[in-house]
Write a structure and sequence with these properties.
By secondary structure, this protein is of the alpha/beta class. It contains 14 helices and 13 strands. The radius of gyration is 24 Å and the shape is elongated.
Length: 442
């Protein structure tokens, strides 16, 4: 029996002499790189952002919850390097694609980064490499979009190179779960690709779950996030009803959460944030239309969650009206630009939509977030703002304080003492005495 080029790759993986290339050094790619570096695997990181490459090349992390110590040591040892030279994609034995998968302005899947990366790999692809897509996408992307691009040069998946999908499961800032300890789902385009990808991830991950196909792996990721999107939409809808009925929705959620079976606790908020939940469900709704299957639950959940910033702005207007003030010309201080507590990740943060809506209605908007001291330009927004310090003077100068993100560093008693009016979307003032009725729930 002759030894194939993929047999040699399998042997490299078994001996842990395999080299890895990670394409996209963001909130998924950088932690993934560190996970394999800690297992003694040499990693080359690829990114088009020259500033990011330069910083990582000096051993400096740009992500808050990833320290410089480990990264710097790996750079000094020469086992990690970052580069913008995509001609070097032929060097690593395994290439992991961790690029963004956003939506278009019409909420349709935008695979331009996946396609561009596939084309870059395809130009230099050599026999004996394993390609794994980790970017969240609709079922069929790996086989219908990526595989034909990679096979343009005559090489074939399952014969000359391996090809698989393995969804990322990052939760930035979560101290209980890391890239290495979260179970890793893997599905190849053929049995050999599945075997190679499984063996590779077993080097760095505590548990690898192999499924029957890339499509199953792709769908599993969407199910995870759609599950959360639908349940968050449910509590967001109940929040609006409970406010109208004079019922404390947070007390309701706490009471329901005492049930030890058949219930999971979800919390309402000012809207969805992060790269996954606001975006991923629409990847499936788009694909479902090809099969003439309506996805009513998913689309309704998206509508409810998308409407929440508008609901919050309405509550701000009502709160100001109670004090005889108009939203137009009012000074608003938004606390929190990150999409979740205690992280420096502002991807799809509802705070940006809130700023846009409030500004459009004539309010003067400022924000505070130690984790995000300057608002950088995004695909949709360009606010030239820097974080406003939380001082007695700044709190008193604002007509309304809007709690968008419940960071741990906020001194809520201090804020309550000095603010004129507060609109709270996170229930952070529950239990604090409010004799002046400054706090409005939203």
């Amino acid at each position: 029996m002759s030894v194939t080029i993929l047999d040699l790759l399998k042997e490299k993986i078994a001996l842990k002499t395999v080299t890895v290339g990670v394409v996209g050094l963001g909130y998924v790619g950088l932690p993934l790189s560190l996970t394999f570096l800690r297992k003694g695997v040499r990693v080359t990181g690829f990114d088009l952002d020259l500033e990011k490459v330069k910083k990582l090349g000096k051993g400096e992390s740009y992500i808050k919850h990833i320290g410089n110590e480990d990264l710097s040591a790996f750079v000094q040892e020469g086992v990690f390097q970052a580069t913008a030279d995509f001609d070097r994609l032929q060097e690593p034995d395994v290439l992991i694609i961790c690029v963004p998968t956003p939506l278009t302005s019409n909420r349709e899947p935008d695979l331009k980064y996946v396609v561009a990366t596939g084309e870059a790999i395809g130009r230099v692809l050599r026999p004996g490499q394993l390609i794994v897509l980790e970017s969240t996408t609709y079922p069929g992307t790996t086989t219908e979009v990526l595989q034909p691009i990679l096979e343009k040069n005559g090489l074939r998946a399952g014969r000359d190179f391996g090809l698989a999908f393995s969804p990322e499961r990052e939760d930035p800032g979560n101290p209980d779960f890391t890239t290495a300890t979260i179970p890793k789902v893997v599905g190849g385009v053929d049995s050999l690709s599945s075997e190679l990808a499984t063996a590779f991830y077993e080097i760095g991950m505590k548990q690898v779950v192999t499924v029957s196909s890339a499509e199953v792996a792709e769908m599993s990721k969407l199910l995870e996030n759609i599950f959360r999107s639908v349940n968050i939409a449910l509590v967001n809808e109940l929040k609006t009803l409970c406010l109208r009925m004079g019922i404390d929705v947070w007390e309701v959620i706490a009471a329901a959460g005492t049930k030890p079976f058949g219930y999971m606790t979800f919390y309402p908020g000012p809207g969805l944030g992060g790269h996954c939940i606001p975006i991923d469900p629409f990847y499936l709704t788009s694909k479902a239309r090809e099969y003439d299957v309506p996805t009513r639950f998913i689309e309704l959940a998206g509508e409810i969650n998308t409407s929440m910033p508008y609901f919050v702005v309405q509550r701000v207007m009502e709160a100001l009206n109670e004090q005889g003030k108009s939203l137009k010309g009012a000074r608003l201080l938004i606390l929190g630009a990150a999409y979740k507590k205690d992280v420096d990740d502002d991807r799809e943060s509802p705070s940006y939509k809130l700023m846009e809506l409030l500004s459009e209605k004539g309010a003067e908007v400022a924000y505070n977030d130690h984790h995000i001291p300057v608002l950088q330009q995004t695909r949709k927004y360009n606010f030239s703002l820097t974080s406003t310090p939380i001082t007695e003077e700044n709190l008193q100068a604002a007509d309304c304080i809007l709690i968008a993100t419940n960071h741990s560093y906020y001194d809520y008693p201090f804020i309550l003492k000095h603010a004129k009016l507060i609109v709270d979307t996170r229930n952070v003032f529950s239990g604090l005495p409010d004799p002046d009725n400054k706090v409005f729930m939203a």
